[in-house]
Amino acid sequence: MTDDRPGEREATAEGAEASARAGRALDERARVTVVIATRNRVHSLLRTLDCLTSLCPGTPIVVADNGSDDTTSPEVRARFPSTDLLALDQNFGAAARTVAAERCLTPYVAFCDDDSWWSAGSLTVAVRTLDANPRLALVTGRVLVGQEERLDPTCAEMAASPLQANACLPGPPVLGFLAAGSVVRRSAFLAAGGFNPRYGIGGEEELLAIDLAAAGWDLAYVASLIAHHYPCNAARDADGRRRLTLRNGLWTAGLR
Predict the structure, then answer these.
(1) Domains and CATH numbers, the chain
(2) What is the pTM of this model?
(3) What is the largest CA-CA distance in the chain?
(4) Which of 74, 172, 208, 239 is least enclosed, having the fewest CB within 10 Å?
């Protein structure tokens, strides 16, 4: 016969519940992998990895290095040995994310740019949302830019999506997204072909969104999912990026 005091029983119950919560959080972190495509932006990438390992502890990370000729690969190996570094021999652009996703062992893949990272708790939101919605291939959230945390204009457009609302979805349905603020169901992403290798980086998301929807998948904007973006100006060709985005938009219109 035990003589547990009420306070002791309550403390034991609270401890058990805390352990259960910690176990659930660990399980959820083990269900998503962060994938980053990068090229020649080692300092920005290292900052991103610092933030991710602090804000999303225990989450697997794959870095796809698009043939960098700076010190990206050796510095990532030295400073973040638990990160899976995929050193590619050429620049695959956005398609490097597809190559990296093929290596992932988790059901979900969260994308980051080399100058963006997820806020604490956001990947848990993504996992729970995708678990609860088996026909959902992609969730995309708010991308807050810079120290001012300005909402990226594309996110405002997605929040006001003109597509017909679906009460079964966790947010407005969308037919486009920002890769740096999105989490995909790995099986659906790979079945759709991932990111087109011809597109590079800039407007590469639209074609994939169309292909996912055509395959019967849903895509939704979920405002509680938050990524931070601190644009890196190093090696950034703004005019070239605009031309590439325009070209990719024309390609998508022609292809679909």
Answers:
(1) 29-255 (3.90.550.10)
(2) 0.86
(3) 78
(4) 239
